[in-house]
Amino acid sequence: VLIGAFTIAVSLFLLLFGLWAAKYSSERSWQEYYVVFNEPVTGLTEGSGVQYNGIAIGTVEELSLAPQDPRQVIARVKLQADAPVKIDTRAKLSVAGLTGTTFIQLTGGSPEAPRLTARDGRDLPLIRTEPSALQNIADTANRLVARLDQVLSDENVKRIPQTLEHIENMTGAIAHQGEDLARTSFYCAVDRTIY
To answer: Please, are residues 73 and 65 in contact by the beta-carbon 8 Å criterion?
Structure first.
């Protein structure tokens, strides 16, 4: 009984030590960062990928709204500890293909720049963002719609029939003058042949 109890205790100790060591090594091989977006993160979910210049290096662990400004979205990401995240590294939203999944794309990070560390009393380093292509397209579409709305205002819509009528009158006058001009050039040509 004594030998059996000792064997079970040692086995449990080794199992617990193995689990602790695995957890410690897995925590050491990953580094967490915050990424704060000033745009909607439609399609980005917990578990979405994070890529650095197209290479998968981590995942999105948590998404939340910023408590001070609900227009901002805070993403907590877990990246490989050896990923070269520098102070000039930038994050933006990207989409895999036309109808693919949304992920975070990291770019930049010059060789001489220092590694990114936590500052301003934050518990994790903060990766700065830049507007994504999706946001640029959405902003351009919004501006185009606003301008189109101005062009097609009620006042301008009322003027369209008058403008068309003026164009029709002007083209009729030009056509009439064209006939007169053709006749004049014909007579000039005839006069030259006579002389």
So the answer is: yes
